[in-house]
Amino acid sequence: MDRQELSALAHANHPIYAPVSDSRVDDLLARTVRRPDAHVLDLGCGKGEWLLRALRTYPAITAVGVDVSSEGFGSTRESATRLGVADRLELITQDVKEYRSSCKADVVLSIGAAYAFGELLPTLRAAREQLGDDGMFLLGDCFWEREPSPELLEEMEGAGPQRFTDLPTLVDNVVADGWTPVFQYVSTQTDWDDYEWSWVGSLADWALDHPDHPDREQLLRVSAEHRHRYVHGYRGVLGFVFLLLRRS
């Protein structure tokens, strides 16, 4: 099973690809979508669940999602058709760093996708290029809740180009780049546990329910490795923040 298929399966019971509850997603969207006919762009949209939630809630908005992987797009399009919102949704398979549109967005979302741009500042620049003058940008990103161990820091920094900071530094960097935060939500430990254990449990459950499947041992191994990384590594150390931003 490749990485995209595995990720889609891991998120089966927690389709929002971030440590946040359903009710908080609704609240964040309510704060972000301020125009009834808003055009919403999600950079690094995953399977497009944030857009599906927004379209279901706001009957006059339009939405575009961009992601390098199309895994999960099929089921999202099916859901959009079932909900009667498919004509207002476009999902594009493309590297977000290369995406350009002549249509400025009223809302830009980038939730846990800064790694796709390499780091935070290119993410902010991409959002600024796509956002209308009075638009709202909802950023979701990780930070260090407390000082990580050298082993954890080495492991996390070896996983990709992005380097995390503490929360005050993250906010200061956003402000220095020309943004004004108007709302902040920090994921709770309950948010994290629900997300991570849904991830771990979805893989383990599937493997145990399919004892003869050739991918069974792979999924059990990945689930166990992820569980160990979370419980023994970044639980209570890695944080996640949502920042609602406007141009300064």
Automatic annotation (TrEMBL):
A Pfam family matched in the record: Methyltransf_31
On whether S-adenosyl-L-methionine is a keyword of this UniProt record, the answer is no
- GO biological process terms held by the UniProt record: methylation
> Which terms does the record give in the GO molecular function aspect?
methyltransferase activity
UniProt entry keywords in alphabetical sequence: Methyltransferase, Transferase
Question: Does Methyltransferase appear among the keywords?
Answer: yes
The chain positions of domain Methyltransferase read: 37-149
Q: What is this protein called?
A: SAM-dependent methyltransferase
